[in-house]
């Protein structure tokens, strides 16, 4: 499929929970005029603790660079897990633009504010230590989720997120997500926009909040989702829980020095 725009976030390259093969299959079957990488693309938090970088994660980087080389506009908006890349705002690496946030105008003229969203997360702003503790516990849940789904695949069943199910059974987590969604909609209004597109909380959603459009593109460790805009202006969530084709044979290329620096900064 070819779309006007595709938003993906929270890929968390550099972690065992990253579903890189599903994302590679999604990128193989979908094109867009614009790709928005809405934060937490590389997980610097986990890479600082232990280095994990399989070939499939490198293939994701190469696939996105190829999209940019072939004419798609690729915009990278760093999140909290790859916050070190924020020092590169306004620069381009391998035709990938690094921005703090951007305004996307839809086919029907709606102005959408695109940002990762962590700046408006109270835990990240006022209790970052708690975010690190939560990240450790979350990583353990994803570890269990990974082997749970390996078993499902062997049984001929599709991907299903045990970790997401457990998270949304917790009342406080549901309340936190609702608060976050309303804060993001309010911030979009303050910026004179018609809506917001963000990531961060790993819950794909399109809904109206107080007259503002709230869109979250989800993630690629739990929900395996992307937000897309069709050429008629329709916004929808794509769930990619089946791998539709054989893994693509991606030629190995040497990353440009600027891209190597960007990846290193996300780790160091």
From TrEMBL:
Residues 6-203 form the Calcineurin-like phosphoesterase domain. It comes from the Bacteria. The keyword Acyltransferase does not apply. It holds the Pfam family Metallophos. It comes from Polynucleobacter asymbioticus (strain DSM 18221 / CIP 109841 / QLW-P1DMWA-1) (Polynucleobacter necessarius subsp. asymbioticus). CDD domains: MPP_YbbF-LpxH (cd07398). One of its GO terms (cellular component) is membrane. One of its GO terms (biological process) is lipid A biosynthetic process. This is Metallophosphoesterase. Keywords: Cell inner membrane, Cell membrane, Manganese, Membrane, Metal-binding. GO terms for molecular function: metal ion binding; UDP-2,3-diacylglucosamine hydrolase activity.
